[in-house]
Amino acid sequence: MTTVDKTTVKSDSDWKQVLTPEQYHVTREKGTEAPFTGKFDKFFKDGTYSCVCCKTPLFRSEYKYNSGCGWPAFFKADDAEARIVRHPDDSIPGRPRVEVLCRSCGAHLGHVFQDGPQPTGERYCINSACLNFASADGRSARAAECASA
Ligand SMILES: [Zn+2]
């Protein structure tokens, strides 16, 4: 079983200072946002999704699809072996699931299910509260600024 590296280590009180109450509850207390309420559920702009806690890039818009399940769904993660940890979750009796966490900071992200589209057949079911989004436009604009500086 792989474990979280926790290269980004903060105390609970530190996380509370940098996260909203909802972000804290979902990422640090393994909460789940209510279905169909997250800001990225029906959001399909071009860009990159990163961990809201430690900013590690996790997903790209190219991997996102509309699963209809009420949470953002991705059929793969960026460099998943290095950035995501899978953990057996038996918190619901009779319904074993696989929890996914950010490897670098241990943030709970959501779960991964084996009912996604090809080519992976996987569905990362992720809470919007765990993600930051950077649009492809914004990123290229910042890159241009750096180049001219
Ligand atoms: Zn993280």
Automatic annotation (TrEMBL):
PROSITE patterns: MSRB. SUPFAM superfamilies: Mss4-like. Its EC number is 1.8.4.12. It catalyses: L-methionyl-[protein] + [thioredoxin]-disulfide + H2O = L-methionyl-(R)-S-oxide-[protein] + [thioredoxin]-dithiol. One of its GO terms (molecular function) is metal ion binding. Binds 1 zinc ion per subunit. Residues 12-136 form the MsrB domain. One of its GO terms (biological process) is protein repair. It comes from the Eukaryota. Keywords: Metal-binding, Oxidoreductase, Zinc. Its cofactor is Zn(2+). GO terms for cellular component: cytoplasm. Belongs to the MsrB Met sulfoxide reductase family. Methionine-sulfoxide reductase that specifically reduces methionine (R)-sulfoxide back to methionine. While in many cases methionine oxidation is the result of random oxidation following oxidative stress, methionine oxidation is also a post-translational modification that takes place on specific residues. PANTHER family: METHIONINE SULFOXIDE REDUCTASE, METHIONINE-R-SULFOXIDE REDUCTASE B1. NCBIfam families: peptide-methionine (R)-S-oxide reductase MsrB (TIGR00357). This is Peptide-methionine (R)-S-oxide reductase. It comes from Macrostomum lignano. The lineage of its organism: Eukaryota, Metazoa, Spiralia, Lophotrochozoa, Platyhelminthes.
